[in-house]
Amino acid sequence: NSILTAHKTMKIKQSKILKNSLFINFLLISFLMSLLFGSLMSVILYYYGINSAYALIRNKNQAATNYIIGYFAPLHSTVEYLSKQPEIIYAASDSQRYAEKALLLFDMHSRTLSNINFVYSGYEDGTLLINDYTPPDNFNSKTRPWYKAALESSPAISGGVPYEEAITKEWLISISKVLINKQNKLEGVMVIDTSMDSIIKNLFERDEIYSSSYSYVVDKKGNIIIHHRKDLLGQNFKNIVETKDSFSNQSGRMSYVFEKDSKIAYYTNLDSLGWTVVTVINKSQILHNLLIRILLSMSIVVLASLFVGQVISRI
Predict the structure, then answer these.
(1) 3-class secondary structure, 256
(2) What are the start-end ranges of the H helices in the chain?
(3) Rounded to 5 degrees, what are φ and ψ at 67?
């Protein structure tokens, strides 16, 4: 009897040892499997998250591009049309005959397009022809940025000039084109101004998921012409960011560092305007959102694996 009892006790101990060993091994295998699948899922989630972020800014960029085209295309067409009207071309050299008719044209077009702030013309003698506006003392059209931009872009329309209005200090963006007479000589410049703030409201619209996203515009020289930060207006994109990318394609992805923040971006070149629309998101915000998703997914996988491992080991 004592021998049988000892034998049974030994079997019980061996059974417990085997059960404990199986339990530990199953848990260990489950944990390793959860790490494997969790790591694989993390990689998948990372690339999916990055691609989703790019898809988001691509869509936002497309919306911003459509908005810019819809906003500025009529302004370009109006400047092109008015720059060919003799009433405007000769308004300074023969003011009695043409100036009043030119002002009527200005008034008619400013009423037609609601996004026009000012429509006017400046001339080689330094004078300004405009409705309902008195220029400050010593005002000279030839020294204004919109005048110089038109001369640099001649005979094409200028690429857009951000400037601070002389009296109100409001930020405007000008579209201008030279006025050429029948003798092919310069008479002056035709200009339309529009408010910077009204454009920025649309380009700086915050996204619910990525609050750091916004859009801005650079010209063909790389100068920033539309941006919610006024201190960046007129600065060259390449001079203020760190990047190896460029706006070489019609559209595409890019990444850069600005003020120590890593950003991912999507851009579209607008051949009709000579501009590039850029939409950006802070990379840190993307990674933060991804990290939360990855940790949540990893936790679910690990807990599920441990639970299944425990059930199998008990069975």
Answers:
(1) strand
(2) 2-82, 86-89, 95-112, 145-153, 196-203, 237-240, 283-314
(3) -65, -45
